[in-house]
Amino acid sequence: MEPPEFVRRLAPDVTLARQAAFALFALTYLDQTGLAEPAGTIVERVDRAALINPHLFAPFAREAGNAEALAKVDADAANDLIGWSRAQRLDREEPQVAYELGLLALGAALPPVLVGSLRQLDLTPDTRVAELPDGAGYPTIFLATLHPHWHAAEQITLFVTSTDARQLAAWALLVLTRTLALRDGAIVDVAARAAPEGRSEFDIALLYNTPAGLDPQTLVRAARFVVI
Description:
single chain, alpha/beta, Rossmann fold, 2 domains, five-stranded parallel sheet, about 40% helix, globular
């Protein structure tokens, strides 16, 4: 997907432009919801927020060693993007709408979600659900909307393999919970695992946007695997 023009203007490097746009967009949401202190430069603000939620700001978290790249984006373009983000009034939007605006800011695209498969699931508040790579939180947004009695924040585990998926998974949890800090183990970065781990047990595993060659059953055990 070609990023929107207001994203491309941020930097000649398309990857940096996309990642910076999403960082600015996420900061705007944190400002509007009062979840982060707005004082300081963009680099300083992202650094503070990334200490709490490194997945949301994965390209600019300290371990990525790329934080100063944010200081190089075009200032006028950054101000325009922040203005656009503020105008969306993300603090008033439903999670699905806020999530899809995040997709736009990141210049990313995902396949359609087969909502019927999610609607037919029988969930209790404590149903344990795994979203397998690289759903990026999109199926979870729909699942939580369709089953509001389900405790999504406590019962979802999102597996990711890419930086985009990692950021969007964190974005999904942020707009669902309005909490910047993540529950331990809420997002599992498969690519970052130092060694294979034992497979966790879930009631349901969601299969959506699965990378070629990935065998989901090597990641988790589940009573039911559902293709979305």
